[in-house]
């Protein structure tokens, strides 16, 4: 639509005469889109705050306790390292805090040794500081240390070189504070303020599962309306799911650690097993759904037939994902999610029987495969899930080009679905 280049007073006159304001409609559309994006961004930010709220409170409590014990109990006049160690243990490596504490202490030891040795040989100054950091990094990398140890060794070397001239006997308090900070962090995590691992997992799983269900819904509607653009947008959105999956994987590791460390959360171990075992099949369901949506785009482009049960099958998959999320959240056996997955396969079988083209047959195959992934995510063994899928799909295959009923036109060539 061409832009109205007339002066504003002419456009206002035209509006009074009953003509359409082209610019006004475009501006209103852009404003509505920006408003929607603003709401989505605010929702995402609030969700991230809720996700990190428990960790933030844990870190604050650990830092305060580490400072108090180092200063009041151990008599350290400048207890800087203890709260830093506590926060570093809690925040830097969710799900691996035991390992993080060990890395912290090893890094401190390397940094102190290198810093003290080079200060003894070379003295202090700018170039000495640069040399100490370089040597600390190269030696830790040569020894095959992790990134966390390399960073901790370099940071400790910097502190030793810069603070040694004004602070005597810095090395021992640094070691003590590293132990103290890491220990306080583990104490807060396990005893004083253990997070509810199921709540953490539910919040982490929600974005990934909501994304999957939403894009399946969009694809189902797009197939009903033969709307290629909307299906393509769903595909683009699903391809950018790395953040949601990474958040879920990290939350699973953190929850498993909490259930291991905290006596108050030991009774949650069995429930956490469902989530831990569901992570991989959910990831596979995401990838298989991507193939389903991509082939749906091709199906529309090639003007292949879209039997009515095909979008219904995809819609049932979306509902299965939502039911799986809900039943995991309330700790129920995901029977409703399983039933809806099998209904999706049954509808896919009806669509295949009605006749589909090549891309349509791939869509049907991916409905079966995604439903199998969701069944496995719900706790069903893979072999049993495949058996259920075959039963729900039914005997729909027939020779290529053979009519389903006498007098019917031959169907387009099809590729047999795979479960």
From TrEMBL:
Keywords tagged on the record: Coiled coil, Membrane, Transmembrane, Transmembrane helix
Residue ranges constituting the Integral membrane bound transporter domain according to the UniProt record: 65-188
Cellular compartment(s): Membrane
Organism phylogeny: Bacteria, Bacillati, Actinomycetota, Actinomycetes, Micromonosporales
Keyword Membrane: yes
Membrane topology: Multi-pass membrane protein
Name of one Pfam family that matches: FUSC_2
Ranges in a coiled coil: 228-258
Residue ranges crossing the lipid bilayer per the database entry: 49-70, 76-95, 102-123, 135-163, 175-195
Biased composition (Pro residues): 409-419
Region of interest (Disordered), ranges: 392-419
Listed name of the protein: Aromatic acid exporter family protein
